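Write out this protein's structure.
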Amino acid sequence: MDKLIITVTCDTTLTYPHNPNGPKPDNPHGVAEEYVRSINAGAAICHMHGSYKSDPIIQPDGRQLQIPIMEGWRLITQRIRETGAAIVQFGLASIRLEQKLELWRELRPDMSSINFNSHDEYFQPDPQYPPAGYCYSIHPISELREYARLANECGVKLEIECFNTGAFWAIEKVRQGEFWVSGQREDEPGLLPDPLWLTLFFGWPGQSWTPPTAKGIQFMVDHLPRDTRWSMSCMDPAVYWRTITHGIAVGGNVRVGMEDCPYVEPGIFAKSNAELVAKAARIARELGREVASPEEARHLTGLNVTRTPVMQ
């Protein structure tokens, strides 16, 4: 079994705003230091939300999303890169294409998130609190094709977010490279270089929900597209750590951090994201899996080990 790749996701604003220890996007220095501490605790991939603001309601384009603020993303990206080989993975999967492209061209992340399902999230992971926020966006095949093409042009590897197996169908459609535009077939192969890097989402509230259970995990794993490596995310505090442990035991990689679950024990907030990373690393070692370094994670994900980032 390969070494475990731990991804850390530090932004708690959209999911657990009541968390007293969570760094906020309007404090990019604080967010950046959370990533540094997490890397030191064993994280190899930094799933990064920079500074941003959110659409207050569904907009005329039919979406309710986040709007990135470049300087916050730049500061956090630079600080992560100062630590060494940790993988910079831009999150906020559904920010609008033109904004994502600007981030790619300016900051050149290693990876960037794209949701291959329709994005329908209702952030209420902790039922004792009211809904914390929403995210809504539809991603037709034509848009996924454009995302993939532009990612290749910018040298960015896609982190494909899969909330249910419909994402696997979309992967195969884009992989086939056969598209129909106004009744005319267009061939564009090679849009998704192997191996793919997928994150499987369990227990995330919304209409793309997949149950955070052993059977839910097994169903997704049984239907994975060929030549993929997968990580997993869970957003259900009641079963969080048992679900993460199951993913580690069956050979998956894991994403931990305050975005997904800020509790290190039931009802007890972690003091930092590093505490959550350290717990995942401890579980892995108790199950007989070593934790991958950032350099090893680059090999396992198909990224180049040595890379000269373009920072403007």
